[in-house]
User: What shape does this take?
Amino acid sequence: MNKLKENKIPAEISNSAGTYVCNHIMYSLLYNIDKKYKNIKGGFIHIPYIPEQVIDKRMAPSMSLDYIVKALTIAIEVSIGN
Assistant: This one.
């Protein structure tokens, strides 16, 4: 999280995987790690809409594609480093 903030990318930790599909993906991943792949780590990164997708979605968060790519690159680099 610190690396994202250092790069002026707005992000926050959430202890909820979100709505149904997000929950399903996250908890399926955690289940498989627990049952089959004990030596790997897993996580979930929720990606916001890009601005073009929220034109008719009032109050929906969005982020430019450039920022999304930069944020994911940083998250992957930090994850690999840990």
In short: Residues 7 and 28 are 31 Å apart (CA to CA). The domain at 2-81 is CATH 3.40.630.20 (Aminopeptidase). DSSP finds three helices and no strands in the chain. Helices lie at 2-6, 20-35, 65-81.
